[in-house]
Amino acid sequence: MGANIHRSTERESNQKRHHTAVLMFAFSQFEVQPMPVADERKSKGTISVIRPDQLSADTSQTSGSRRFSAISAAHGIASALWAGTLLVEPGAKTGIHHHGEQDTAVFVLAGEAIVRWGDLGEHRATVRAGDFLYVPSWLPHQELNPSTTAPFRWVVVRSTPEPIVVNLPDEFWDGKNRDVQQPRLCE
Predict the structure, then answer these.
(1) Main-chain dihedrals φ then ψ at residue 15, nearest 5 degrees
(2) Which of 89, 93, 86 has its CA nearest to residue 60?
(3) What is the mean pLDDT of residues 37-43?
(4) Residue 126 — very low, low, confident or very high, per pLDDT cuts 50/70/90?
(5) Which terminal Cβ of the chain has fewer Cβ within 10 Å, N or C?
(6) Residue 142: helix, strand or coil by DSSP?
(7) What residues does each domain of the chain span?
(8) Left, alpha or beta for 130 (phi > 0: left; psi -120 to 50: alpha)?
(9) Best-predicted range by mean pLDDT (3-17, 62-76, 101-115)
């Protein structure tokens, strides 16, 4: 029995040596680069903090709403993105508009909104505080506040550094969609 234990232990030992050699060969085929620490990366930027009283209304606007920029060249921030807030008062609606080549990501901070979109204004969705919303480039849309008492406020991030707002005529969807039921603003 002692000879069998010795052979078994020797066989296991040989298998371990073989597996170790295979792993060493496999890992030797990869070039391992040390991970640079932060001070080795030579960052050109800095952290920018924009306080609520520093938001700027000096940005592209659409009727029925107020946009305030936070992350923009106007604040001395060189970024590939634009970010700010949007406010729509109770019972109000924005004009029909799109954002050209910009994709837009929204986080609903407060309130509720109905968002209309499409070539005919035929689609709609309701968003509430805590929701995210994505608006693709070139898509005509409009935001409506169904509340008679509370504004809605969004955090908005756009995919280019300068905001693009293309305001469309109020009658943009008129006549094109006579059979499409329009959302009611204050129900």
Answers:
(1) -65, -40
(2) 86
(3) 60
(4) very high
(5) N
(6) strand
(7) 1-32, 52-167
(8) left
(9) 101-115
Token pair listed for 61: 């606007």
- The band of 37, judged by pLDDT with boundaries at 50, 70 and 90, is low
Q: What is the largest CA-CA distance in the chain?
A: 96
- Please give the CATH architecture assigned to the domain spanning 52-167: Sandwich (2.60)
pLDDT in tens, 57-89: 998 898 999 999 999 988 888 899 999 999 999
Asked if 101 and 160 touch (Cβ cutoff 8 Å), the reply is: yes
Q: Which residue has the higher pLDDT, 53 or 12?
A: 53
Position 164, amino acid: I
Q: Do 114 and 144 contact (CB within 8 A), yes or no?
A: yes
Amino acid identity at 42: K
Q: Which amino acid is at 173?
A: W
Q: Two tokens at 79? A: 């970024």
Tell me how far apart the alpha carbons of residues 128 and 109 are, in angstroms, rounded to a whole number.
Answer: 8
Instruction: Return the residue matching tokens 């936070």.
Output: 70
Q: How is 77-97 classified by DSSP, letter by letter?
A: ---S-EEEEEEE-TT-BPPPE
User: Residue 6: what residue type?
Assistant: H
Residue 137 C-alpha from the chain's centroid: 13
Residue 46 pLDDT: 85
